[in-house]
Amino acid sequence: MPHNQRRAISFGLGRGARRLVTCSVCLRVRDGATWIETEEAIRRLRTFERDNVVRLAGGLCERCETELWLRRQSRPEELAA
């Protein structure tokens, strides 16, 4: 199929679909009060067994938030935007 005629794949996002918060930087998933690696979240939450696709919501874990803050404090002149 030519690249200009690609079709979108429709996934079921039924009502009440669970929403997982993922860190936009490191992609870890929040599980309660802790952040776990993506692979562990898939295994633990068994997302591959669900009829509906799991919805993702972006977030920022404490580790990445701290690293970004430290980076901005150490080199503010290098920030582009």
By DSSP, the count of extended strands is 4
- Gyration radius (Cα, Å) is 17 Å
Helix % is 25-40%
Which oligomeric state applies?
A: single chain
Overall mean confidence score, pLDDT? 78
Q: What's the number of structural domains? A: 1
Strand content: 15-25%
Shape: elongated
Spatial gap, N to C terminus: 39 Å
The computed structural class is alpha+beta
Output the number of helix runs.
2
Question: Can you describe what's shown?
Answer:
- The protein has 81 residues and is of the alpha+beta class.
- Helix content is 26%, strand content 20%.
- The strands form two sheets. Strands 1-4 form a two-stranded parallel sheet. Strands 2-3 form a two-stranded antiparallel sheet.
- The longest helix is centred in the last third of the chain and has 13 residues, at 62-74.
- The chain is elongated, with a radius of gyration of 17 Å.
Chain-wise SSE layout:
Layout: E1 19-23, E2 29-31, E3 34-36, H1 38-45, E4 55-59, H2 62-74
Parallel strand pairs: 1-4
Antiparallel strand pairs: 2-3
